[in-house]
Amino acid sequence: MRRIISVLMENAPGALSRVVGLFSQRGYNIESLTVAPTEDETLSRLTLTTIGNEHKIEQITKHLNKLIDVVKLVDLTEGAHIERELMLIKVKASGAQRAEIKRCVDIFRGQIVDVTSSVYTVQITGASGKLDAFVDAVGEGTILEVARTGVSGIARGEKVLSL
Amino acid sequence: MIIRALQDEGVDYVFGYPGGAALHIYDAIFRNPAVKHILVRHEQAATHAADGYARATGKVGVVLVTSGPGATNAVTGIATAYMDSIPMVVISGQVPTDKIGEDAFQETDMVGVSRPIVKHSFLIKDPREIPETIKKAFYIAATGRPGPVVVDVPKNVTTPGEKFEYQYPGKMKLRSYTPPGRGHSGQIKKAAQLLLAAKRPMIYAGGGVIQGEGSRQLTELAQLLNFPVTNTLMGLGCYPGTDRQFLGMLGMHGTFEANTAMHHSDVILAVGARFDDRVTNTPSKFCPGAKIIHIDIDPASISKTVQADIPIVGAVDLVLGDMLEVLKQSDQSPDSAALAEWWKQIDDWRDRHGLYTRPRYRTDSGQIMPQEVINTLYEVTGGEAIVSSDVGQHQMFAAQYYLFDKPRRWINSGGLGTMGFGLPAAMGVQFALRDAVSVCVTGEGSIQMCIQELSTCTQYHLPIKIICLNNQSLGMVKQWQDLQYDGRYSESLYEESLPDFVKLMEAFGHVGIRVTRRDQLREKMQECFSEQNRKRAVFMDIYVDPAEHVYPMLVAPNGSMRDMWLSRTERT
User: Are the beta carbons of B440 and B386 closer than 8 angstroms?
Assistant: First the structure.
């Protein structure tokens, strides 16, 4: 099962390598990972998506919690949550293709952020599934390059992850 | 500043080896006699000695090494301490901050190299961070589930000219780290209920009971309930080894009675143990009828390989103390009829194949049997020695036959299985407890992995007694080659290459005693521990039967805990 785990950790050198090292050391998968400072400059927020059964996820969260640099964490998939990922995707766009791609971008509520005579650069935001769907929709043949940020997420409602 | 911080932390010994990047720190050691430095002969030995010191006392072991090779040589010892949850602080010199990342002379990314084998690590970037970082390192190493902490110190951070206001922090609190304290009272009550209802209970106690200072509470609980107790390799001594309720060690080379009783039990109280693969054999076949209560300070150890029915996270001494209170106040008592039946069954197992009801090794051979050596050692030392061990057959024989009545008397590398651990660990023990009898049980293979430390023993007059079970081969490797590779002894024989250990000892200024005949064993052992050798290091080079195997041995793969080889030909 796919899980989104959000981690608040000390904004300290080496903290990220401890998290990444833990995953490779214990044979856990990382599907995606994003990390950036928060409004409190001493803290970073790291969001990772991973796949595993109940037992494995329990071990992952326990081991993450054991890291001294990890202050708090939450498995967002345990409750209602919002999940977003941003994708920049460069696609071939010439001739009749241009209108076709433009329509597709509109349907996915994306934006064309850069244009040349033969290429569109498109920005799409949404849950990972939506981004996958866009990639499928434009078709492999037209895609030149894909850059995805990885998933970021936050719980719905009053629930907050803070100190 | 570093040495001053160590002094303020109450450190009496530092085990180390100097080098370029650590020279400022070494100069401070020269000028501050409050912290005694022990010069070893190899950095690996510094870590093992600090480890032995920590295991014998419960205090944090301290290591000081230089950058590059100094740091990497310490890695094996850090990993050893990590696997066995031993509190240790390793201070490593580093190249100056402006040289980091330039492949400077003797530069290694120590924080990176050690990352998977430390509880935490620090790189000090500013001298003003020194007192707080040292305090944090000791706090993290010693609390919760203990472990090694590395503090990497670039040379320019310790420049003597650099002056600033020094203040050592009193108390430490970290927002991201709170060691567990008391257990959940509801869970403890549930566990007590389950224990009182048990018909075939087992207490399975590990190294956590020793580390967590819970031996007294564990012993009281077991005796209150009249439950049988087994210990892991790491837990030996946390329950009195000579007590009637003790069934011996469990696991790979555990006793028949302990392993069989585990398999047939209905309730297991696991305390400070981690269901290691050397214990459980095949996890899916582990104790099929048992409900499991698991007490551990590390939540990640619970339900890792074997699912716990009642998990309790907390410090063992507090949890067991609370559990004792609940049991004492309960109006129920244990099912004495069922327990009587269970003990009858256990005594029958003991009688059939138990290690302590009669000798389970050949006593009619002209050769010296390794088990007999340990028995003789036990008798001559009155069971009072602190025994450090290396890794291999001799380790298992010592674990099986030297009965430890108190915690912190059995010092061995259980998790990592580090050959070369024994001698430096015995040195650490001797520094910690100057008047204790510090024994190193070893083999002619393991001892050669840190044999240079004989020189350290000379320098500091350490009267360590080294009991070498010499079978002229890597015994445990050979045993597996006998059992699984049709006796093809690939690279496990020394042939004629062994040194004359007696002469070697004399070269270092110690005493060497060779024993080749069975009828000399006791007399020579007494000579080793005699008054005239009380202040000398003695090496007993004892030629034992090279063909002997360690039994019982769990049948693997796909065996359960009751599936054991009892000898070369006999299986349960």
Answer: no
